[in-house]
Amino acid sequence: MATGTERQGTDRAAFGGVSRLRGVVFRYVTFAASLFGILSLAVLLGYVFWDAFGLETAAPAWYATMVVTVVLPVAGFLLYARRNPLAGRTALELAATATGGVLSGFALVVVLEVIAGPGLWFAYFLAMGVPLGALYLYGRRVEASWTGLAVLGVLVAGPVVGTALLGPLSRIGGFLGGPGVYYLSVIAPTALVARHVVDEYLDGPNGNYVALATLVAPILAAPAIDTVAVLSRSVWLLFFPTLVVPFSIVAGRNLATPGRRVGVAGPLAFALGVGLLAVVPDLLGVAGPSPWFDWQYVTSAPSQTAEQAGLYPAIIGSIFMIVLVALLTLVLGVGAALYLEEYAPSSGPAGAVTQFIRINISNLAGVPSVVYGILGLAVFANTLQFGFGTVATAAFTLSLLILPIVIISAREAIRSVPDSLREASYGMGATRWQTIKNVIMPRAIPGILTGTILALGRAIGETAPLIMIGVATTKFSPPSGLFGKMTAMPMQVFTWSSYPSEAFQHGVVAAGVVTLLVVLLTMNSVAILLRNEFERGDY
Description:
Blueprint: H1 2-52, H2 60-83, H3 85-116, H4 118-141, H5 146-164, H6 166-201, H7 207-220, H8 222-226, H9 233-255, H10 265-284, H11 295-299, H12 312-343, H13 348-364, H14 369-383, H15 391-415, H16 419-427, H17 432-460, H18 464-468, H19 489-497, H20 502-536
């Protein structure tokens, strides 16, 4: 009896020792793999950013100035924030607001100023934006069941009305000009939104004063804006609601809270440091970096000389294309996933067909991208006559490429919602549609957006399908519309990489990679913010 007990104890100890050893080895192997991947990516990005910003031309005195004006103040604030977490959270909130405002402003400029244009935007704003805004304000004041149907009617009929009246409404927009259109269609609604946010959610000044400041400040600042060569009044009016208004509200709220005031010092120190870094070296005659990635680069057309080369047409083409891809894949992918998980039969002959479809969707996710390029060439370019190398052909082709990925991720997210929640909803008398809308989708959206982020990241970097459908490697003007010819950033960067000039291979190409990363991170940040908002929701 004792011998058996001793043997069991020995076996247990030996098993425990082996288990711990394997666990420790596995832990350090995974740590080493993660560290290797992170360091490799850091070295690659460091090399790219070094070339893109021309840091090799900066004198040692410039780096010393950067350390004194930027690095030391920011490092000092970070050390202080470790002892005062509230200050750190305040600084992070301000930095996130500023970064999001800048990225959103760029997106607004691209969509309204470049792709749509003031006339087209104003026509659809009058046909859809004004009725929707009026219905929203009426619904907040008077409880009426018909407002929901009215909103649906506007969403359906608005595009038709806007298209039918596009000529006269566009002429009105042309008469007002870009600044006039954006003041009426962007600044005025922003004033109403700012008033609502301040009155409903913030213990700050009266919302009417905030709305008045939102309406008056852009006009008062217009003379100063005219002195800035790279900033027009139209661009200023599009950046004002995305950057100036949110940052002012957030900064004012933090300054009004005693415990948060010190947190404003971090972003302020960074902004002042960057300003001094831009001025002091020039005053001292110190050579600074010669960046390839600058305003001229993102606003100019390609050129045979590296110093004049720009990525503007490719940026607009990629953004135009990826916005359409996102809309198509979200609508079709989520719709297909919902049907397969919630409505499709699971037994009988119809169930066998459903299972066959599910298996083939999984297989399609692994098909090489060049196959989708051939499919896009045959279906969209030739059969449907969307044209070779157009935005529409590229968007539909890349949508086919990532649609299986979006469907699979959406199915997994929907399937992860516990069945007990569905049963509880049905037990309360909810219909299947009400259960999907109120129970399943709010909990599945974070997973759906995660899969969409990964899929769009793949789509924006693809080149093989674009080559197959005839997308140009170089264009000197952005696409004029949905059926206009386009080029994409990966295509243009690849073309530059074949140039014999070292300036193209190391400077211009690196700046193109940085531009692609900025566009990708901007797109992903919007999806991540939406995902986090749904994850924080109280469902």
